[in-house]
Amino acid sequence: MTESTALPGEHRTTLLRGGEVHSPADPFATAMVVERGHVAWVGSEGAADAFAAGVDEIVDLDGALVTPAFTDAHVHTTATGLALTGLDLSGAVSLADALARLRAYSAGHPRDQVLLGHGWDAARWPERRHPTRAELDGAAGGRPLYLTRIDVHSAVVTTALLDRVPQVAALRGHHPDGPLTDAAHHAVRAAAYAAVTPGQREAAQRAALERAASLGIGTVHECAGPEISSEDDLTGLLSLAAAGPGPRVVGYWAEQVTDAKGARRVRELGALGAAGDLFVDGSLGSHTACLHHPYADAGHTGVAHIDADAVAAHVAVCTEEGLQAGFHAIGDAALTAVVEGVRAAADTVGLARVRAARHRVEHAEMLTSGHVAAFAELGLTASVQPAFDAFWGGDEGMYAERLGVDRARTLNPYAALLRAGVPLALGSDAPVTPLDPWGAVRAAAFHRTPEHRISVRAAFTAHTRGGWRATGRDDAGVLVPGAPADYAVWRTGELIVQAPDDRVARWSTDPRSGTPGLPDLTPGTELPVCLRTVVAGQTIWTNGM
Fold first, then answer.
1. Per-block average pLDDT, block size 10, for the chain (545 residues)?
2. Which positions are tagged coiled coil (predicted)?
3. For residue 482, with 0-12 CB atoms within 10 Å meaning exposed, 13-18 middle and 19 or more buried, which class applies?
4. Are 315 and 422 contained in the same domain?
C-alpha cells in the first residue's frame, strides 16, 4: 500500500490517496498531502496526480477513511496500563467469578509485593454485594491486595494491605468490612502504589499509550494529582511521551492553587493546568457524589470535598496566573458549588478573563438547566464520558438505582449543553471505562435518554477538535491545510450523515448535502478498525498498513 523514498523517522512529505478524507475544507476529498508534520493540502483524486512526483511517500488508502486522530480528554494512564497488564475484573459476571479470577491471578504472580486489580462492579453481579475482607484474604492467599471498584472512587482491600496503613481506621471513609472511600481510600491507594516499581510503572504507561494509539487516539489528557497518582508518575509519563513515538500527552495536575508560587509549581511539573480530578465530590456508584437530596438507596447526600469558596479562590488565582483551572464534579450539589465558585471568581477578576481561560469541569453529569446556562455564561468546558451512560444509564441501570428513575433521566444532557453553546470534550476516564473512541461517539449519539442524544457528527467533533479546544488550541483536531497532521486511517463500511432523532432523517447519502460522511454507528453495527495512527506526521501505530 505504501511507496517510500525517505528514511524512517524523517519528516516526509506524504500523499494519501484513493480513500475518503474527512475534512471540512472539501467534503468530497479523497486525497491529502502531509508535509513537515502538518496538513498541506486536501482535495480530489485527480488533483492528487500533480503532487505524486514530489513526495517521499505515497499511501494507497484502498478505500479507507482518514479522519483526525481522536483526543481522549480524561485518562489515568498508569492506572489504565496497570488494568491492562494486571487483574481486570470488568468482565467478571459474578462475585464468585471475581474471586476465582483473583485466586488465579495471585497464583500466577507470586513475586508481586502488592496485588493490584480493578473493575469490580457489584451492581452487575447476581449476588448484588461486594466481596468481604475474609473472602479477599482467602482468595489472595493472605497477601496485600488493592482492588478498585469500576469508578475508582472506592476499593476493597485485604488485611495484609491494611496492616501497612496502621492509621487507616481513624480516617474518613473507613468501613470495617466494606469498600473504603475518601481519605481512607487515598491512604491505602498510596500504600499500594508505593509498591509499584519504576519499571512496572513505565511498562504500564507504555501499554496504555500503545492501546490508545491502536484505537486511533493521537492525544490523551492525563488527569493526575496528589490524591490520584504522584508527581513522579506525571513527570515520568510526560518524559516518556516526549521521547516518542506515541500519542501526545497533555498533563493536568489536580491540586488547589492558592498563590503564584503554587501556580509556578504546577507549570514546573509540566502540567497545562491545575485541573482534572480536583475533587469537589466523588462518584454515584460509590455513593460519594454530592447531591442536593439523598440517594434513593442510601440515607445521605454523598461527600463534599471542597466548597464554593475554595472553588472561587482556586479559579481566581489560576485566572490571574494564566493557568487553566478545573474540577471533578458529578452530583448536582457539587456542580452548584462549582458554578457558584466560578461566578464569584468572575466577579473578582472579570468575566471576560474567566471565559478566556477555558476552565473545565470533568464528568458534569447531574446538570440542571441552571447549571447548563451557567456553564455557557462562564465559558466552562464540559469534559464528559458518554460511556458512563452506556454502562450505567437507563431506567434499569445503576444510576436509576442510586437516584430513582426520574433523577437518573436528567444525567448527561449532551443535547442541552450543545444547544446552550457549551464546549464539549469527550473522553473515557480510563480505566473507569475502556479506551474506545468510536464507542464513546456511539454512546453520545444513542444516549439511553433520547432527549439527550446528539448527532454522530457533533459527538465526533467533540472527541477530536473538542479535546484540542479544551487545551486552548483552535487550530487542531481537523484536517485542513496548516493543521497538525494528527490523523487515523480506518477500515469501515459505508459513510453516512447520521442524526440522533427519529423525527428527522437518520442518515443521508445525498452528496448535495455537502457534509462529510462518517461511519454508521447504529447499535449492533461493527465499529471502524484502525489501520494506522499518525501524530505530527509520524506513524505511531500501524496494523499492516
1. 44 91 93 96 90 89 97 96 89 95 94 89 91 94 92 89 91 88 89 88 96 98 93 96 95 97 96 97 95 97 97 98 97 98 98 98 98 98 98 96 98 97 97 96 97 96 98 96 97 84 41 72 96 96 87
2. none
3. exposed
4. yes
Please state, in angstroms and rounded to a whole number, the distance separating the CA atoms of residues 244 and 439: 26
- The pLDDT value given to residue 506: 39
Report the C-alpha gap between 319 and 359 in whole angstroms.
9
pLDDT digits (tens, 9 = 90+) for 299-313: 999 999 999 999 999
Among 169, 195, 221, where does a domain finish?
195
Same-domain pairing of 51 and 85? no
Distance of CA 403 to the CA centre of its chain: 24
HSE (side-chain half, CA atoms, 13 Å) at 296: 13
Range(s) of the domain holding residue 31: 13-69+479-492+528-542
**One domain, residues 359 and 435:** yes
Which pLDDT tens digit goes with each residue over 331-358?
999 999 999 999 999 999 999 999 999 9
Q: Which grid coordinates are listed for 436?
A: 474506545
Instruction: Give the separation between CA 525 and CA 519, rounded to whole angstroms.
Output: 10
For residues 541 and 434, give the distance between their C-alpha atoms in angstroms, rounded to a whole number.
19
In the prediction, which pLDDT does 194 show?
Answer: 86
Q: Which of 488, 438, 433, 426 is nearest to 462 (CA)?
A: 426
Calculate the alpha carbon distances from 319 to 344, 346, 350 in Å: 12, 9, 9
Are 279 and 287 in contact, with CB atoms under 8 Å apart? no
C-alpha cell recorded at residue 147: 482492588
For residue 393, tell me if it sits in a domain.
yes
User: What angle, rounded to 10 degrees, do the helices at 260-268 and 308-320 form?
Assistant: 70
- Same domain, yes or no, for 54 and 84? no
d(CA 461, CA 514): 17
Q: Judge whether 244 and 205 are in contact, CB under 8 Å.
A: no
Residues 6+ apart with CB under 8 A from 437: 70, 72, 215, 216, 217, 426, 428, 463
Number of structural domains found in the chain: 3
Do the Cβ atoms of 330 and 285 come closer than 8 Å? no
Cis ω on the peptide bond leading into residue 523 (within 30° of 0)?
Answer: no
The answer to whether residue 498 is domain-embedded is no
Q: Grid coordinates standing for 482? A: 496548516
Is the domain of 148 the same as that of 280? no
C-alpha cell, 446: 444513542
65 within some domain: yes
| Angle between helical axes of 198-214 and 231-243 (0-180°, round to 10) | 50
pLDDT at 509: 41
